[in-house]
């Protein structure tokens, strides 16, 4: 029998395991449709806030010489209510709505906006490394993580994912708190706080000075995090960080992820990257006699 | 090590040419930008100010390229004010380019939308019969007229200027002139860059007569490489799928000519 690349991340069932990560191209339903047709298993929206945000001035993105990107887009987004109206007509594309906020009420309010939308899951951004009072600053505060997760879980029946990253406290404690508060899955990781300085003009390049490093340089770090989380907690995991090939995706499965997300690889390989990876995973499964992704998940820990 | 085209390269402004009271051309030396295809753009970093998408302008001297900028808001004014000896960062080139056709060509440019048209002129063959139509608000905002004539000196050609107030050349909107020209002449290709309403009407005029037409779209650009999503037009990403699109494709795009996104990604009417 032909193996299947369909996967389940807890209660989230997807036909294909590679998703679009938050913040990448995630601004219009037309683009979501295109990415879904290109082989994305699901698309994650830009992180939405209660009000529209313009984000930082340019330069907001910087290409690192050895590979990878540093971005400080500053969570620019049209706001949750605008976005909800835009995606209301959607029936086909599995959309994961990413939310960012400072207090539990922000999240509660935004979830109400999506009452008429088909939402596959919510992803709580507890890890953006370059915007004050949201993202990592939330993720680094266990009390807040607990309150937010519990509030969101009460506000919706849709599965809720927490997206974590590397902040000032041990991210494993954030994961632990989220798990104890009833989270359904974890996405690991967000970008890693970084910067770039131009030697000619002798100044930081990004307008915000600091940004988040993504792409191939962070893959080994993200992989380590997925391995650590899956070793310590019994929670479905989505791997994210530097994935650009089927080998990368399979590595994350072997480390304990049931699905993966990618963003930066689109800058290098454009939207064909989804189908390329899906095909590669399928070939690998055939060669190794796996019939489901599940058979691969966490295998590297058994050896 | 080979140059990473996504990484800003610092160049020094060597010459500043005042085209009109509000438009300037800044010339610099570089080994990549002088050879880019017509329609391609660069992301231009003005340290301490902003980073803006700019079409790559030609320079008469070899090994040099330029940007032609109109002073508008704070960011473009920042670039406009970079003096000789000042440094800017450039990355790219980005985007696709115009398909260079042969025969009877019509190039339509409004304001700084003329920049990609000037580069396109350096790609035409001596046998091509070329009409350049340029639109400006008034007489003192007309530029590149002499340059167009000079670039086309070996071609059968016409350079037509139209001003909204009639203070120079033909009076009226460029799009009315386009309608007239495509009625009179069977062009093999029409190319347009300028304000979107102007491009929309030009594309309609040509497309409805089955004339091959291409337009170069402008959208809010942050990354320039197809990651951030800010430049989407329907399902297309202007920076990566464009900026040049065919009339055939544009006539199916529901945002072209009507809507664009602001910095937060909210659709606004033109
Ligand atoms: C592919 C491309 C090529 C271009 N080529 C030229 C050129 O050759 N010469 C020229 O003068 N201008 C060109 N522009 C326009 C230029 O990038 C700026 O949009 C324009 O100069 C306005 O700057 P500003 O100082 O008014 O911006 P601001 O005052 O910061 O903003 C005013 C408005 O300008 C526009 N704008 C600002 N930042 C951007 C951005 N990053 N991307 C797109 N639009 C923006 C928005 O509509 C904004 O609302 C080009 C734009 C694109 C997309
Ligand atoms: C331009 C850009 C914008 C991003 N915006 C968001 C965002 O809004 N919310 C979020 O949770 N992560 C955001 N991220 C992080 C990505 O979702 C992802 O976690 C990170 O880029 C690592 O994956 P990659 O290496 O495949 O890009 C952004 C990343 C980039 C490059
Ligand atoms: S400018 Fe970022 S996707 Fe086009």
Structure in a nutshell:
The complex is a heterodimer of chains A (303) and B (270). Chain A has 303 residues and is α/β, with parallel strands linked by helices.
Oligomer: heterodimer
State the low-pLDDT regions of chain B, or none: none
CATH class group of the largest domain in chain B = Alpha Beta
**CA distance, first residue to last residue of chain B:** 45 Å
**CATH superfamily (homologous) name of the largest domain in chain B:** Nucleotide-binding domain of ferredoxin-NADP reductase (FNR) module
Radius of gyration of chain A: 18 Å
Order of H and E elements of chain B = EEEEEHEEHEHEEHEHEEEEHEE
Name the hetero compounds present: flavin-adenine dinucleotide, flavin mononucleotide, FE2/S2 (inorganic) cluster
The chain-level structural class of chain A is alpha/beta
What's the CATH architecture name of chain A?
Answer: Alpha-Beta Barrel
General shape of chain A:
globular
The biggest chain-chain interface is: A-B, 43 and 36 residues
Rounded mean pLDDT score of chain B: 95
Mean pLDDT of chain A: 95
Structural class of chain B: alpha/beta
Alpha plus pi helix count of chain B: 6
Protein name (chain A): Dihydroorotate dehydrogenase
Binding site for substrate (chain A): 46, 71-75, 125, 190-191
Catalytic activity (chain A): (S)-dihydroorotate + A = orotate + AH2
InterPro entries (chain A): Aldolase_TIM, DHO_dehydrogenase, DHOD_1B, Dihydroorotate_DH_1, Dihydroorotate_DH_1_2, Dihydroorotate_DH_cat, Dihydroorotate_DH_CS, Dihydroorotate_DH_I
């Amino acid at each position: 029998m032909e193996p299947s690349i369909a996967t389940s991340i807890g209660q989230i069932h997807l036909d294909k395991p590679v998703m679009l990560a938050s913040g990448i191209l995630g601004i219009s339903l037309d683009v979501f449709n295109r990415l879904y047709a290109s082989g994305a298993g699901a698309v994650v929206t830009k992180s939405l806030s209660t009000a529209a945000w313009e984000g930082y001035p340019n330069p907001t993105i910087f290409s690192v010489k050895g590979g990878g990107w540093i971005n400080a887009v500053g969570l620019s987004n049209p706001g949750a209510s605008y976005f909800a109206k835009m995606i209301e007509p959607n029936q086909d594309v599995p959309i994961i709505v990413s939310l960012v906020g400072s207090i539990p009420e922000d999240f509660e309010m935004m979830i109400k906006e999506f009452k008429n939308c088909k939402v596959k899951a919510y992803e709580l951004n507890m890890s953006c490394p370059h915007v004050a009072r949201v993202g990592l600053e939330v993720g680094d505060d266990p009390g807040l993580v607990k309150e937010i997760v519990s509030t969101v879980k009460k506000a919706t029946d849709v599965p809720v994912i927490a997206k974590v990253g590397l902040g000032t406290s041990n991210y494993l404690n954030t994961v632990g708190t989220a798990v104890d508060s009833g989270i359904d899955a974890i996405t690991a990781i967000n970008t890693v706080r970084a910067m770039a300085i131009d030697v000619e003009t002798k100044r930081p390049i990004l307008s915000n000075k600091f940004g988040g490093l993504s792409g191939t340089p962070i893959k080994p770090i993200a992989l380590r995090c997925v391995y650590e989380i899956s070793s310590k907690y019994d929670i479905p995991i989505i791997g994210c960080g530097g994935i650009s090939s089927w080998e990368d995706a399979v590595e994350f499965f072997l480390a304990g992820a049931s699905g993966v997300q990618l963003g930066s690889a689109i800058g290098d390989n454009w939207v064909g990257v989804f189908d390329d990876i899906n095909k590669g995973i399928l070939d690998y499964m055939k060669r190794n006699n796996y019939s489901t992704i599940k058979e691969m998940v966490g295998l590297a820990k058994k050896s | 090590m080979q140059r990473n085209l996504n990484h800003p390269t610092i160049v020094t402004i060597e010459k500043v040419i005042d085209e009109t009271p509000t438009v300037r051309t800044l010339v610099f030396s570089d080994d990549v930008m002088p050879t880019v295809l017509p329609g391609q753009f660069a992301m231009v970093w003005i340290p301490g100010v902003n980073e803006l998408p700019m079409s790559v302008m030609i320079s008469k001297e070899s090994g040099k390229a330029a940007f032609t900028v109109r002073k508008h808001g704070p960011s473009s004014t920042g670039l406009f004010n970079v003096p000789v000896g000042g440094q800017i960062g450039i990355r790219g080139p980005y985007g696709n380019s115009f398909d260079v056709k042969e025969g009877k060509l019509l190039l339509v440019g409004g304001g700084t939308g003329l920049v990609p048209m000037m580069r396109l002129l350096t790609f035409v063959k001596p046998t091509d019969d070329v009409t350049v139509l340029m639109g400006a608000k008034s007489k003192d905002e007309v530029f590149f007229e002499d340059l167009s004539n000079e670039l086309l000196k070996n071609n059968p050609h016409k350079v037509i200027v139209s001003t909204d107030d009639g203070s120079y050349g033909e009076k009226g909107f460029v799009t009315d002139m386009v309608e007239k020209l495509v009625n009179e002449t069977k062009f093999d290709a029409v190319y347009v860059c300028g304000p979107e309403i102007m491009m929309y009407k030009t594309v309609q005029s040509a497309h409805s007569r089955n004339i091959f037409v291409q337009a170069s779209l402008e959208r809010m650009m942050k990354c320039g490489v197809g990651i951030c999503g800010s430049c989407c037009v329907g399902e297309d990403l202007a920076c990566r799928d464009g900026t040049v699109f065919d009339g055939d494709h544009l006539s199916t795009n529901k945002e072209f000519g009507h809507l664009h996104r602001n910095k937060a990604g909210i659709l606004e009417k033109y």
